[in-house]
Amino acid sequence: MKSYYQCAMGTSKRILSLIALSLDLDAEFFKPDGSETILRPIHYSGRAIESKHGSDHGANAHTDYGMLTLLSTDGTPGLQICRDKDGRPQLWEDVHHIDGALVVNIGDLLERWTNNVYRSTLHRVLMVGKERYSVAFFVWPSPDMMVTCIESCCSEANPPRYPPIRSDEYLEQRLTSTYKYK
């Protein structure tokens, strides 16, 4: 796990550096060395869970909260994305496994920072009657990082869509709205 973590960290640094350069920023803008990360092994039993969306979901539709998620899978089908999360109806596409490749999801805070230039990835997992294993590597900005629209991502014709927010405040808002206790 330590070796995998180090490789995932190096890969996420490179991807975030390329994203920064694509926005005419310094390669270290997203400060990957100061990031918070979580490495999470995930097991889906193959049995569906009941939800308001039906009973074929291992994970209901959601976006990841941080900057970036790297996902390694065992090749079992079931992962789907919705390219136009604001579209109605939502159209879902299977993510086909490619040996040796990672799935890269953009997170909500990167979407906010870039004023929707980079959109967070709406995704879900459907149960297909087989166990499924994956490893997710979530990358967050440091908790005290202020996420404000990047200057190259807005203009008079395209003003900032989101107010500035601290990374930890956004996480708290999302966790509170996702896991409402009754």
From TrEMBL:
<keyword id="KW-0479">Metal-binding</keyword>
<comment type="similarity">
    <text>Belongs to the iron/ascorbate-dependent oxidoreductase family.</text>
</comment>
<dbReference type="InterPro" id="IPR027443">
    <property type="entry name" value="IPNS-like_sf"/>
</dbReference>
<protein>
    <recommendedName>
        <fullName>Fe2OG dioxygenase domain-containing protein</fullName>
    </recommendedName>
</protein>
<dbReference type="GO" id="GO:0046872">
    <property type="term" value="F:metal ion binding"/>
</dbReference>
<keyword id="KW-0408">Iron</keyword>
<dbReference type="Pfam" id="PF03171">
    <property type="entry name" value="2OG-FeII_Oxy"/>
</dbReference>
<dbReference type="InterPro" id="IPR005123">
    <property type="entry name" value="Oxoglu/Fe-dep_dioxygenase_dom"/>
</dbReference>
<dbReference type="GO" id="GO:0051213">
    <property type="term" value="F:dioxygenase activity"/>
</dbReference>
<keyword id="KW-0560">Oxidoreductase</keyword>
<dbReference type="InterPro" id="IPR044861">
    <property type="entry name" value="IPNS-like_FE2OG_OXY"/>
</dbReference>
<feature type="domain" description="Fe2OG dioxygenase">
    <location>
        <begin position="34"/>
        <end position="141"/>
    </location>
</feature>
